[in-house]
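An example makes the point: we print one protein in full, the chain in one-letter code, the fold tokenised, without further comment:
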Amino acid sequence: MARRDKVLLSVLAAALLGILVLLALLGWYLWRESVLAEEARLEQLSQRLGEQTERAIVDARDLLDRLNRLDLTPCSPEHLEVLQNAAIARPHVRAIGYWHAVERQCGAGYVQGQALTPPRASRIYDSGVIAWWPGPATAVGGVELFLMRFGQHDLAIDPRLLMTPGLLEDAKVGLWVEDLSMAVYPLGVELPEPGDVRPGLTVDRANNQIVSRFSLGTVFPIDVVAVQPIGLFWERYLPTLVGAGFLGLLLAGLWLVAVLRYLRQHLSLSTELQEAIANDRLSVVYQPIVDLGSRRCQGAEALVRWHREGDESVSPDVFVPLAEASGQATELTLSVLRRVLRDLGKPLRQYSGLIINLNLTAQDLATPRFAEALAELQQQEGVSPASIKLEITERALLNSDEVRERIAALRARGHPIAIDDFGTGYSSLAYLERFQLDTLKIDKAFVDGIEGQAVASSVIGHIIDMARSLRLDIVAEGIESEHQVDWLRQQGVQFGQGYLFSPPLPAAKFRNWCNRR
């Protein structure tokens, strides 16, 4: 499989994986948000039911207290009228009665006589309130009532009327007060005890249902347990999930289109670069390197340029990494070398002191092919290896025996070796000592710092000291002012390049420029 196809498949696989991850994250997020929304809805329902129950119980206690303080003859028409009105005002109150000793004397509502005399109370409070929770012992006419007695009066609450159907919708809901069951909806449904349910919302996939439990305890400890089929959850949130899913698919589609467009452009550019290299359509310009003292031309750095059809320029920052990524870096370097030998072969043969710097990539040092082609081209043109200085970036100085051996072999053949853009990586003196080098080039970023920045100047001073300790020639890049030249000369830097002296020049102009110096 061709490298181009491998790159295409790799990028497409990465894009598809990214889409799958995006959709998975979107699905997880939407599910989570839907569950949180349902949890908030059920919590609000539980809060309303709990508060409604609290109000009913507190109101019942306060009502009994007020009835006990009435200055009316027990069971008189006036007394019974008050009881009747109190019951009518509270739909959930089914009966109110008056007691004397252990006998119910009279009352209002549909519970008459001694019907409300369960054998044992569920709770007896310090305040004197006695309560019976709904159960068989409190059933009247098949309805299990909640009973409360305080002083000489009691009342019966139908707990079914506390469970507002419109509020509950299709859920099964249970209401517990002080850990005792108060009511369930619908009637007779079986629900788990609050202690068996985790607080909040739980998706019970085994039983295909959603179970929730929420608690409040402003006055009494109240728990509300709700169970609903998971299908109701889907009915409630499916439109949102589907809509968001379509949005996710749309975003995924746009992402895929963007990736394919990038691939088309990237691979098209890669193919164009391959054709430009093969058909010798790359050009080379030369930025002079001068002696900072005499300002005489010592040589130049060869810089590759690419002009596409229509005179559109592609930056080296774009096509050089592209060449490395597509495996064309060595072909690119050799193409530059061929152009250098064609442009400057004659002066390089005539003037032994003229040196052209050729930039290498990490790929050039990874295999023996570049060194073999370099030797063959030099022999064909009759150019001495000493005339071609090989620039290696600090990042390309891999700490491997194989790379060190190749650098040493190139130097042994007569090629000067320079480390380029020094200071932008993490090389130390001990690290550089492992390689056989001749020249150290100081990156433009540090030269720029000479202009009044003490910190940068101290860094560049450290770099210069390091080069001296290794007995390397020093070239400063990107010089733009005489002040920089003066400072560099004071520090012992011999050579430099930059727009102060000359921009990169075509071959003919470079030859003329050098001849004048």
